[in-house]
Design goal:
The protein has strands at 3-7, 10-13, 18-25, 32-39, 46-51, 58-60, 68-73, 78-83, 92-100, 108-109, 113-118. With 119 residues, it is an all-beta fold. The strands form two sheets. Strands 2, 4, 5, 6, 9, 10 and 11 form a seven-stranded mixed sheet that branches. Strands 1-3-8-7 form a four-stranded antiparallel sheet, with no helix packed on it. A hairpin with a 6-residue loop joins strand 4 and strand 5 (46-51). The radius of gyration is 13 Å and the shape is globular. The termini are far apart.
């Protein structure tokens, strides 16, 4: 059974930092592309950042470039999102997701972790 479990969310003041983690089990971790997504209240879910199997290729939404860093540790089956310079508009539920290399759609999703940035 595949499981993705996010942690590290919370309440932080604008300008602060948080580090999200996504611990996975039940999949061949190094064969999967991973991503962080977020959904703010009343808005559509959006992609925040993605990382390929080796960690050598990363992509970011324009809104987080230069502030967020995605990484993965294939030995620990865990992905991370370091978020610096947080803004109130970063407030959302953050989800991690995984898709097998080469596939279009993300197959597995975590339950989400709330990030709230106060002004």
């Amino acid at each position: 059974q595949v499981q993705l479990v996010e942690s590290g969310g919370g309440l932080v003041q604008a300008g602060g930092s948080l580090r999200l983690s996504c611990a996975t089990s039940g999949l061949t971790f190094s064969s999967y592309v991973l991503g962080w997504f977020r959904q703010a209240s009343g808005k559509v879910r959006e992609s925040v950042a993605t990382i390929n199997w080796s960690g050598g290729t990363t992509r970011y939404a324009d809104s987080v470039k230069g502030r967020f860093t995605i990484s993965r540790d294939n030995a620990k089956n865990t992905m991370y999102l370091q978020m610096n310079g947080l803004k109130p508009e970063d407030t959302a539920v953050y989800y991690c997701a995984a898709k097998y290399e080469g596939r279009t759609r993300y197959e597995y999703w975590g339950q989400g972790t709330q990030v709230t940035v106060s002004s």
